[in-house]
Design goal:
The complex is a heterotetramer, with 2 copies of chain A and 2 copies of chain C. By secondary structure, chain A is of the alpha/beta class. Chain A folds into 2 domains: 242 residues, 3-Layer(aba) Sandwich (Glutaconate Coenzyme A-transferase), CATH 3.40.1080.10; 37 residues, no CATH class. Chain A is built from 13 helices and 11 strands. Chain C has one domain: 3-Layer(aba) Sandwich (Glutaconate Coenzyme A-transferase), CATH 3.40.1080.10. In chain C, the strands form 4 sheets. Chain C has a 10-stranded mixed β-sheet with strand order 5-4-3-2-6-11-14-15-16-17, with helices on both faces. A 3-stranded mixed β-sheet of chain C has the order 1-18-12, with no helix packed on it. In chain C, strands 8-7-13 form a 3-stranded mixed β-sheet, with no helix packed on it. In chain C, strand 3 and strand 4 form a beta hairpin. The longest helix of chain C has 12 residues. Chain C is globular and about 45 Å long. Classes of the chains: A alpha/beta, C alpha/beta. Chains in contact: A-B, A-C, A-D, B-C, B-D. At the B-D interface, helix 5 and helix 6 of B face helix 3, strand 10 and helix 4 of D.
Chain lengths: 302, 302, 274, 274
Amino acid sequence: MASSDSATQGGDLPPQRKSKEISLRQAGERIAAAKTVHAMNSAMALVRAGIRAGAKNLTVIPQVTSNLSVDLLIAAGCVEKLYISYIGFETYGFAPAFRRAAEEKSISVVESDEAFIVLGTRAAASGMPYVPIRRIYEATDLPRLNPLLKKVLDPFTGEETYAIPPLPGDVCLIHAQECDEFGNAQIWSGNQQEIDKAMASKFVIVSTERIVSVDRTRENVDKVTIPGYLVHAVVHAPFGAHPLVWARHYESDTAHLKAYFDAHAQGKVADYLEKFVYGCKDEADYIERVGVRQVMSLMRNV
Amino acid sequence: MASSDSATQGGDLPPQRKSKEISLRQAGERIAAAKTVHAMNSAMALVRAGIRAGAKNLTVIPQVTSNLSVDLLIAAGCVEKLYISYIGFETYGFAPAFRRAAEEKSISVVESDEAFIVLGTRAAASGMPYVPIRRIYEATDLPRLNPLLKKVLDPFTGEETYAIPPLPGDVCLIHAQECDEFGNAQIWSGNQQEIDKAMASKFVIVSTERIVSVDRTRENVDKVTIPGYLVHAVVHAPFGAHPLVWARHYESDTAHLKAYFDAHAQGKVADYLEKFVYGCKDEADYIERVGVRQVMSLMRNV
Amino acid sequence: MAKPADTGTDRYSMAELMAVEMSRNLAVDDGTLGGVGGGATIPMAAVRLAILTVAPNLWWFCGGSAAINPVFTELPLTAHDPRASVGAEARAPMQRTVDMGMRGSLWGWGFNGGMQVDKYGNCNMIGIGPYEKLKVRGPGTVGTLWSASMSKYYLYFWHHNPKIIVDKVDFISSPGFLDGGDSRSRVCLPSAKGPALVYTPMCVMDFEEVTHRLRLRSVNPGYTVDDVVKNTGCELVIPPGVGHTAEPTDLEYRLLITQIDSRRVLRNYRLSIG
Amino acid sequence: MAKPADTGTDRYSMAELMAVEMSRNLAVDDGTLGGVGGGATIPMAAVRLAILTVAPNLWWFCGGSAAINPVFTELPLTAHDPRASVGAEARAPMQRTVDMGMRGSLWGWGFNGGMQVDKYGNCNMIGIGPYEKLKVRGPGTVGTLWSASMSKYYLYFWHHNPKIIVDKVDFISSPGFLDGGDSRSRVCLPSAKGPALVYTPMCVMDFEEVTHRLRLRSVNPGYTVDDVVKNTGCELVIPPGVGHTAEPTDLEYRLLITQIDSRRVLRNYRLSIG
């Protein structure tokens, strides 16, 4: 970059480009200060940091299929309201903390679906006042269960359509494979829901397996999924998606997930949280508790 | 691919994957049969083929900044209606055929802008009945000049918003750097307006500098800008964007463009069209008329 | 207590049979775009097998991985598995996925499931019991609303019992034929044909043409019509002479276990009856 | 007949001076996102120079090339030039561009132009004359409507004459301060501050605080206040003691011609007066 060149001219140093890197602890405090969170599943280190920092009464807008990141927040008592599209572990079964909290009514659920979350997030991201969609919702019980779905007339055809409201967030949590210190982030094998979530949020935190130089970002610009101007803070968090799978990095840790399910089944969630969240000084400590050998065994086939 | 493996089992041959390749002439006929065309600027070979095939009374929805592809269609008398966002040659000046036709009222103009075309195309691409946007249009003369802009109330806030209608097309013309025979297309340095235009259209034609194997497509999937399921026909058209610039292939042919402008200034557009469109047997003939030496000189700095 | 589904023979597991039968019925979809969502291990195998046999021109969207036309030899457990994106020909960003579905006519077919399905093919992912006091809170609707409303689709279930296949679902999260007859067409586009087939570890079902009631189509090897009726929680139309689902051919099976599921995930895939 | 703009001195061309002066005034935008559109040769150079001098944290969108923060040493003529995308840090698809603008608050600044601009900064890209019988049909509104409505922006013109800078534009395709005073705030968000500065080959202008009338800020070297008034088609607020636009420093000029415009595109860039 030429800025270093101009710096050699003598006299006052020119202004420098500022790094956006913050610590995981600072990120946690930011999460704890938020009301509404747009969360991507894999941002597990950020979720743990938010729990440690005392996040409370959160409204969570997860990705359209979510699992542990949201379930752990619920298990730790951080969640007041959840926009639901899908939360569960597919072939492994229900999300235990969510199921219990929803049945006991200790969280409130906005009965949404994929289109509601994707399009509502799009509206918040793009300044659309709302998103009209054809009346297919009428074929289901969703309009009865979700009072946020309103009707509006199509001014061109006079037909009745449904309107989905914008879903803005205070903070957005995203995990990346690579990110430079200015926030340009690469999410490999992602589905780019991240960019709408980022644009819909006031403060965007990207955790990343690896912080790379901006020159490396420029090398393969087609892989940059989130441009840095959308990002407010970058956190270095290797293994930051554990125990979830992270493309080209590590497999899902099914043994650890089983321990989580078992903790729920045996009423020992507090023990799990103490051992793997509250009790951890930092994420290095977390990985040591999970076991370095265990984590290394996941680094294949992915 | 394993299909060849199953073919070796003897007995009936299994069904084979079908190529979407057609000739440029066939593409021209398809264009001539259309009413509404979504056109990307650089698809010059397709535009010339459409003119040769006798396209008439077209409604054209160009990209948000358009130049020669639309101007040539107007010069050849193919256009009845134009959705305008911008048509011109930036630092080189006005689009001559457009300016004349618009002033003489031989074409009708829908007074649009970037947002109108992008969001209207998005609506057609995504099944949204219309796109509501904040009332910023009111600060301009566009609502007075464009009767397609309608008002609708936001059911959440009660505020007045403007509604942009869907802009579907019969045929969509796109030029690519690389495309496999199944329609997976790479447009380098593009802005991805192409994918919405494709999704908004009933029949999508991709012309391409180079037809590559699907194995090559798979090698760098991040570069695939249009998935093949959106594409109905693939046309092999080397130098298919000439005389416009085409990233990583050739520079803009300013000498040829000047000849086009001069033809307009001197009332000799018919001569230009005869020499470079109607009189050409095919695109190889066209490139010979432009001059191989001239074309080769453009293959640098780009 | 539910018991594991009979594996049919020593040669193949019931999950493998389901994948093979699904693949055959995709022949009619050749040339169109469709896809799979969450928990779609069996459908993913089926789509790949169809492409290698009867439907080489299928375009398919592999759920969470965002991959179009991936090619894998190690069958992923879920569409979110990064392995589910290898060898892809393109990627579909999230928003395009919703676009594809909502636009109508572009999305040709999909594989959906649910906690409950009823005699008209309506599915429930929301929960069991009154909404104010759910006995079981379900995982949510995901994309099944649009994929069921806007296209033809296939249903599949890992379990076959009267609690899953019911007379009337507690909530409709994705529309089948609603109240039967032509009630679906009151809301959905005529081109969006709704549920075509229903796959379970026990049988394949479809829907009667006019009434749109659930109908037995074939019984999987190892079971009888009576077994099916006993384990189904709604009335089932039983056509005369309903036969068995055809077993995998040698070619189908060899392609499945060498080119799609080389780690033999489907061999011990957990399914249940009763 | 219009004549080429005076080049000021042998050292620099007027286009180079404009780029340098634009770059300085981007210091207040450091850290924010903005961008340039069509025909933005001079603003492209200005943004790059600002990043190398006073605003290293600018994020900029380079129009048709879809590039975010490109780095070039050969100045492209237009934002559509593939050269305008080299060295980029990200790409912004078309739809994101409209999103960025429409969302409000994200898009901080832009460079707009037009066929006409009036004393309140309203611009016209539609045409000259009555709409039913245009004397000159303009090229169209492009993205100037949203960028002018939803943010602060800069105006620039290649030519300075009374036909371009007029009392009242024939059509408003992008809003300045509308009828002056607080009329802009009736439609646009308060955070969208509207036109901040106007660059021409002859001078730099801004707008009076309350009335929002066009005001002379500095006269480019080689011209006088009288020259400006004579070539301007609307009344211009002339503050007492208005000075000249500062010439490029050696450092600014060296950076411009070595690191941004090594082919010296701006040296002979066509601008005109009168």
